[in-house]
Amino acid sequence: MVFNRIKTYFQQFRILKATRLLSVDAVRKWLDPCATFSYSQTGEDRIIDAIIGRVSEGYYVDVGCHHPQILSNTFAFYKKGWKGINIDANEKLIQEYQNWRPRDISLCAVISNKKQEVVFTEFDDPAVSSLSMEHIDEWSNHRKIINKRNVTTSTLQDILEEHMAPGNFDLLSIDVEGHDYEVLSSLNLNIYRPKLIVIEMHKFNIVNPGSSEIYEYLKVHNYNMIGYVIMNGYFLDALIKA
């Protein structure tokens, strides 16, 4: 098992980064052998791992991917041997992905359900930058706006077709600060079928799930909500045979 991990790290990372990560893992294991570690904001990667993480070479699509390690839903899986497509509107963060994750396809793009020119608002904390005016109004009371720029959106369908993503893949993660439904609905789920969709759902009412357009959209497309934790919904493809 240790040999396999070493082999995977040197496959996934450049030599210095693989050596660094192996050293950190070894020290952490020595200090607390019973601990588990999460790179995500609220433990999403641990939950994903419990649901579908047993495969060693999976495929993900991470929209609103932010940093390649910090607050990442997919870095733990890249370390295991997975690969996929990462998308974020922040060019500097995408450059970090290209440095840290050479086997991934990492793209600077803004995703929506139609191609159009929009204003993208950047905050001093890139994790809360957004297209959503409601989200921008809320966060402008807490964070400083540092830039507004005109961008042309792409659909997720077009991105996956252009980069020849597999029709059936393991994980779709969406976290785009209030514009999540528009990203989700830009993908034809009859053509591209992620096994698990993890999506941020602001103001979701677990007592009345049908009031959520995300919930209803995925229900119509044969996805079952199997969990909601803090801010994210977890939807499993109901068409997968047990």
Could you write a compact summary of the structure shown?
The protein has 242 residues and is of the alpha/beta class. A hairpin with a 2-residue loop joins strand 8 (223-229) and strand 9 (232-237).
Distance between the termini: 28 Å
Total domain modules: 2
CATH level-3 fold name of the largest domain:
Rossmann fold
Number of strands: 9
| Residue windows where pLDDT falls under 50 for at least 5 positions | none
Neighbour order of strands in the largest sheet: 3-2-1-6-7-9-8
Instruction: Please state the second-level CATH architecture of the largest domain.
Output: 3-Layer(aba) Sandwich
Largest sheet: 7 strands, mixed
Q: Specify Rg, calculated over alpha carbons.
A: 18 Å
Element order: H for helix, E for strand: HHHEHEHEEHEHEHEHEE
CATH class of the largest domain: Alpha Beta
Structural class: alpha/beta
* Strand portion: 15-25%
Mean pLDDT across the residues is: 92
The percentage helix is 25-40%
Tell me the overall shape: globular
Describe the structure.
This protein is an alpha/beta fold and 242 residues long. The protein folds into two domains: 1-35; 39-237, Rossmann fold (3-Layer(aba) Sandwich), CATH 3.40.50. Helix content is 33%, strand content 24%. It has nine helices and nine strands. The chain has helices at residues 2-12, 15-31, 44-52, 75-80, 91-100, 133-139, 156-162, 180-184, 213-220, and strands spanning 59-63, 83-88, 105-108, 117-123, 145-152, 168-174, 193-200, 223-229, 232-237. Strands 3-2-1-6-7-9-8 form a seven-stranded mixed beta sheet, with helices on both faces. Strands 4-5 form a two-stranded antiparallel sheet. Helix 1 (2-12) runs antiparallel to helix 2. The longest helix is centred in the first third of the chain and has 17 residues, at 15-31. It is globular and about 45 Å long. The mean pLDDT is 92. Residues 62-224 form the Methyltransferase FkbM domain. InterPro entries: EGF_Rcpt_Signaling_Reg, FkbM_mtfrase, SAM-dependent_MTases_sf. It comes from Scytonema hofmannii PCC 7110. Pfam families: Methyltransf_21. This is Methyltransferase FkbM domain-containing protein.
